[in-house]
Inverse folding.
């Protein structure tokens, strides 16, 4: 079976992608290849961050790989938190704090249109391909649900 690295340490994302791809690939996470480094996401775009992570794995570990960056884009907040979604409330990547700040920033706002946008950079051999997907929605005015992670509630 073909092995490919998903350049993430996020256990939730690994579980989801493994469930989606089933037995077609063996999906390895960063920990599986001994990469314990925190790959810096220093780009100011989702595309840039996805490419940085994929290129890092390919250059340092030699594996074909893919990496993503996902942002929650809220129209009324001019696209924020966007590329800064994971660290919206600060550098700690605290999901509860991020959601809490978002809810405070949305108080009294009537235009609640938003989307999750994901960019994936895939490196196979010497080729790099970028893919993008969006899910449109709205920010509701209360937290709901216990499944999922990040901004899901």
């Amino acid at each position: 079976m073909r092995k490919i690295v998903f350049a993430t340490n996020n256990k939730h994302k690994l579980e989801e992608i493994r469930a989606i791809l089933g037995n077609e690939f063996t999906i390895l996470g960063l920990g599986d290849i001994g990469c314990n480094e925190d790959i810096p996401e220093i780009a100011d775009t989702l595309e840039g961050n996805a490419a940085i992570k994929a290129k890092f794995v390919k250059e340092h570990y030699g594996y074909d790989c893919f990496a993503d960056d996902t942002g929650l884009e809220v129209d009324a907040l001019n696209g924020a938190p966007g590329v800064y979604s994971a660290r919206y409330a600060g550098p700690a990547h605290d999901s509860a704090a991020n959601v809490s700040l978002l809810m405070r920033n949305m108080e009294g706002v009537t235009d609640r249109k938003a989307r999750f946008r994901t960019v994936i950079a895939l490196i196979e051999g010497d080729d790099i391909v970028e893919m993008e997907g969006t899910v449109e929605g709205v920010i509701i005015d209360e937290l709901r649900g216990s499944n999922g992670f990040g901004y899901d509630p």
